[in-house]
Design brief:
22% strand; Purple Acid Phosphatase, chain A, domain 2; six-stranded mixed β-sheet; single chain; binds manganese (II) ion; 12 strands
């Protein structure tokens, strides 16, 4: 079921292009990905940039960025980029605890999932994509729990070190599941279509599945899947999707 009402982001007429990226999974162990992301933000000529979730491999709470370290380094990059152009962030399944304090400290603007972007006469529906993977029933139960304000409030009252340990154990579980060869559900086509119809949009753009591609949902509706980023992979992966009046164009950065 599509959330009601669907949030809207109306681009001012001066915007020519909006860049979308997701699934960078930034973490201290992957400095090349951080560096490619930093360089992209410093050089991009997009009028606005939208990060569609899983920017961070883990986010234990906004207070993590208040002490020197990787989270603070990421915050500094975001602050500099957001000072030059609007920079938006939508939560993913890894960084769902990014909060208003972090947004305020960096100048990043938080977006609801999904949000309809109206740009140069076209309507794009933007989502992380995890809520559309209806086959991941166990994950969707977890998602409902950790997205509840009461759960988040209680969790954030725990000491930072304890929250970091929980985040680490979730990552270990996820790695083990990946190694075990578990198959992951993909976006449910009927659900994606229902969201698009509710939003009055023709194209859904999402990340999360790490299966970049483009899929027709019917004669008029389609979904475009963003690439994840991994500069340590061979060949390396880093890409943004540029939206403009001319449509959507993939821009490889690696
Ligand atoms: Mn994800």
């Amino acid at each position: 079921m599509a959330p009601e009402p669907i949030a809207e982001l109306a681009a001012p007429p001066s915007w020519r292009s909006v860049d979308l990226l997701s699934d960078l999974h930034l973490q201290p162990a992957e400095p090349a990905t951080f560096e490619a992301w930093r360089r992209y933000l410093a050089a991009s000529d997009a009028d606005a940039i939208v990060i569609l979730g899983d920017l961070f491999e883990a986010w234990p709470g906004d207070d993590a960025a208040q002490e020197p370290g990787f989270a603070a380094d990421c915050a500094a990059v975001l602050r500099e980029a957001a000072a030059r152009r609007p920079l938006y962030f939508m939560h993913g399944n890894r960084d769902f605890l990014v909060g208003h304090a972090f947004a305020q400290a960096t100048g990043v603007r938080l977006l609801d999932d999904p949000t309809r972007l109206d740009l140069a006469g076209q309507r794009w529906l933007l989502s992380h994509g995890d809520a559309l993977c209806l086959g991941d029933t166990e994950y969707l139960r977890f998602r409902a729990q950790v997205r509840a304000p009461g759960w988040q409030h209680a969790f954030l009252l725990r000491p930072l070190a304890e929250r970091q340990a929980v985040a680490q154990s979730l990552r270990t579980q996820s790695e083990e599941r990946k190694r075990s060869g578990a198959t992951y559900a993909d976006v449910d086509a009927a659900e994606a279509l229902a969201w698009l119809e509710a939003a009055g949009a023709d194209t859904l753009v999402h990340g999360h599945t790490h299966r970049p591609g483009e899929h027709a949902l019917d004669a008029r509706h389609r979904r475009i899947v963003l690439s994840d980023w991994d500069l340590a992979a061979r060949p390396p992966r880093a890409e943004v999707l540029r939206l403009s009046g001319a449509g959507a164009r993939r821009m490889p950065l690696a």
